[in-house]
Design a protein that fits this description.
Helices cover 29% and strands 36% of the residues. The chain is α+β, with helices and mostly antiparallel strands and 182 residues long.
Length: 182
């Protein structure tokens, strides 16, 4: 259940409409929704099942104000979307993210596939070519698969149903035998 801190504010209405739109898009999966929403942001967790996998979609938004001693400064909006998919039968593991320091430890084959500032580690590098389009198209901050759990993090708004369908493609790649991967 979502707890709303109602306010007569266009920012609150925008936050509430964004959350309701996402929940409405996922209603066919009968989601369990928990969290809060206010004029200052929201922190929502949406749990649902799809294709025998457990999904957890975390949406977090907050505003940070900046010191504007003489001249007022606008607040900074921070929005993070995190998707966790569990119960995957994947035997592989990988980790892709943005870090200049960790990029130094990335193999030369993977640095050719993933541009700076991305680092990457894969249990089988043949999977990297297939994962890269998802990372690039969605400007993914970090994605990892380990012990049958896929975690994906992105900053900024996006169309959730498109994101979930593209994540399903990644799941299919991760669960497919390596002979079928490029």
């Amino acid at each position: 259940m979502i707890t709303y801190e109602f306010a007569n504010s266009p920012i609150f209405r925008s936050n509430k409409n964004y959350i309701e739109k996402i929940v409405d898009q996922l209603k066919s999966y009968i989601p369990r929704v928990d969290g809060y929403c206010s004029s200052f942001g929201f922190n929502i967790e949406i749990h649902f099942s799809k294709d025998n996998y457990s999904y957890l979609l975390k949406l977090h938004k907050h505003q940070s104000t900046q010191n504007g001693v003489v001249v007022p400064v606008d607040a900074f909006d921070f929005l993070k979307i995190e998707l966790v998919i569990s119960d995957l039968p994947a035997s592989q593991h990988f980790h892709v993210g943005k870090s200049a320091v960790r990029r130094l430890m990335t193999s030369s084959q993977l640095t050719e596939i993933f541009p700076a500032p991305y680092f990457a580690t894969f249990s089988d590098e043949r999977l990297a070519q297939s994962i890269y389009p998802f990372v690039q198209e969605n400007n993914i901050e970090e994605i990892a698969l380990s012990k049958g759990i896929l975690t994906c993090m992105k900053f900024g708004k996006m169309e959730i149903t498109t994101f979930l369908s593209q994540a399903a493609t990644v799941i299919n790649l991760c669960c497919a035998p390596l002979s079928k991967v490029q």
